[in-house]
Every structure is written in C-alpha cells, then in structure tokens.
C-alpha cells in the first residue's frame, strides 16, 4: 500500500516539509527525554539506597549444600563485612581439642582490617557517576543539542551496564582468589596460613569460597602440607603435618575431589595446591533488588537511545 499527497508537492518543498517534521519530532523527543532522565535519576537513587551502608545491615546465612562442611553467617553493611562466624568441618583442617568444628570469626575490633566486597564498591561508584551524568545533562549541558544528549545517554548506558555486570560477577577487572588474599588480621584469632577465605558477588548473591592449601613441589612430584602455625612457605614436620603424612603413607587420607584439585596456584609468593574447597552462595535481597532495578534502567535507556538514533537518522548502536 502506498500513500501520496494531492495536489502533488514539488520535490524541493516536500524535502523541506520532511526536514521540518523531523525537526519537530526531534524537539519533542528531546523534551520528553528530560522526563526520562528524571525517572532514571529516581531509579538510580533507589539503587544507591539499596547499596548504602546502613545499620544494622544484611545478615546472611551460610550453609554448604547437603553437608556439614560449612555453617555460619556474615553481616554486610554496604560494601563491608562487619561481623561473621564460620564453622568448618574439613578433613585437612582439624578442629581444636574439645570442639567438633574449626571456627573462623571476623574481628569486630576497630583496629582490625576490614573485609570489603569490591564489586559492591564498584557498583556504588558507577551509580554515583550515573547520577552526576544525569544532573549534568539536565542542568548544565544544552538540552536542545541532540548530539550532546545522545553522547550522555550512551555514557549512562555504559555505566549502568558496568554496574549491573559488577553485581552479576566476574568482570574483567576482578582478581582471582589467589591474587587477592585477605588480611589474616581481619579475623580473631587470625586466619590460619593454610586457609584462603574469599568473598565475592555472583548473580547478586554473596559467594564464599574457603580453601585449605598445601605447598606444591612439582619438581619432586610431592606435596607438603602447610602448617597452621607456620608460614605458608615453611613446611612443618610436626603435629598435624606428621599425622597427615602418616595417613597418606597408610592410604587413609581421602583424595582431593573438586574442580581445582589438580591445579597449582601462585599464592603469597608460593606455589600451592588446593587440598579442600567448599563453596557457598547466600542470596542477598538488597543486591538482588538493586540488580533487577539496574536491568530495568538498562532496558529503558536502551529504548531511549534507539528512539533518538532513529529520529537523528543514525543506526542504533549494538548493545
């Protein structure tokens, strides 16, 4: 089906009318986008509120699936882990005499190092950057300049995508566990030298990986367990280490069975293997709500960018 104008309009006049119509559409869209920016700001402020460091924080239960390997809790306030107790039952981490589990307690001392979820910090930083972009777009820049508005929307879109990706987990700038060890002094008593305690965010859930480590000597084909009391680079041949070596000789020690069992990692200046590993996820309602809101904001701004590109005669950028 085709349409035509009667009486016919000269090509030059028709071109002028088309351009005038596009100009009016662009003017209307730029005005409408101011309301969109206001709505985006409200959504971003809600996300910032969900991630703000407010007491008493979020207390999350930690429990290994179908086992007693790990039980406990942590309390998150903003990006900081301010409290937590974790009870471990691992073959390579014997419990103290008279106890049935090995307890790790996060120190509540003001002088103790703080455990920080860097992904939450990154998300908050990006959200604050988005709020600055919205304010600059609405109050500082030329709101009638389509190219300016388009570039600002692109910047907003990229920041929101990065913020959502940080809560989703495993961004390009996220370091692996062996390159980012926690300070043992963040625990009371201090974290044993042969234990790695790694917290991160995955799919808006707090992910805890606890690993027990042993020194790796690939040249000789043997592994010497680390001592809890000694440094990671100083093998111990007394106490637990002797018992473990005797158990290995008698065939009584269970073979490590996890996804990192046959890998060697560089950790605190030494080559180590992972003896035991336990992985626990705990759903965080605030993080889940923030990621859902960011996903909705991402869709809204993508639609706004696409509409503006169409009126400006540009092809919509992928993503």
TrEMBL record:
The keyword GTP-binding does not apply. The keyword Coiled coil applies. Residues 23-50 form a coiled coil. Signal peptide: none annotated. GO terms for cellular component: RAVE complex. This is RAVE subunit 2/Rogdi. It comes from the Eukaryota.
């Amino acid at each position: 089906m085709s349409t035509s104008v009667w009486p016919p309009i000269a090509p030059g006049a028709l071109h002028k009318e088309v351009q005038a119509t596009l100009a009016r559409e662009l003017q209307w869209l730029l005005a409408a986008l101011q309301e969109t920016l206001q709505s985006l700001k409200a959504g971003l402020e809600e996300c910032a509120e969900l991630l703000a460091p407010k007491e008493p924080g979020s207390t999350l239960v930690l429990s290994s699936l179908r086992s007693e390997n790990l039980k406990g809790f942590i309390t998150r306030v903003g990006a900081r882990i301010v409290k937590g107790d974790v009870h471990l039952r691992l073959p390579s981490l014997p419990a103290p005499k008279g106890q049935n589990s090995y307890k790790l307690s996060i120190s509540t001392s003001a002088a103790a190092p703080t455990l920080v979820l860097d992904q939450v910090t990154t998300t908050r930083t990006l959200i604050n950057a988005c709020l600055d972009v919205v304010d600059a777009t609405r109050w500082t820049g030329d709101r009638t300049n389509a190219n300016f508005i388009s570039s600002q929307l692109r910047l907003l879109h990229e920041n929101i995508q990065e913020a959502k990706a940080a809560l989703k987990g495993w961004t390009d700038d996220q370091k692996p566990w062996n390159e980012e060890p926690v300070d043992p002094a963040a625990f009371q008593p201090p974290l044993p030298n042969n234990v790695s305690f790694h917290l991160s965010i995955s799919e808006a859930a707090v992910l805890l990986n606890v690993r027990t480590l042993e020194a790796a000597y690939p040249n000789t084909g043997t592994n010497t367990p680390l001592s809890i009391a000694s440094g990671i680079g100083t093998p111990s041949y007394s106490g637990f280490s002797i018992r473990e070596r005797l158990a290995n000789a008698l065939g009584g020690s269970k073979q490590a069975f996890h996804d990192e069992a046959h890998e060697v990692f560089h950790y605190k200046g030494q080559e180590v293997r992972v003896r035991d590993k336990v992985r626990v996820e705990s759903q965080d309602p605030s993080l889940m709500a923030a990621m859902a809101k960011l996903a909705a904001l991402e869709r809204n701004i993508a639609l706004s960018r696409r509409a503006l590109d169409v009126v400006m005669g540009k092809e919509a950028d992928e993503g």
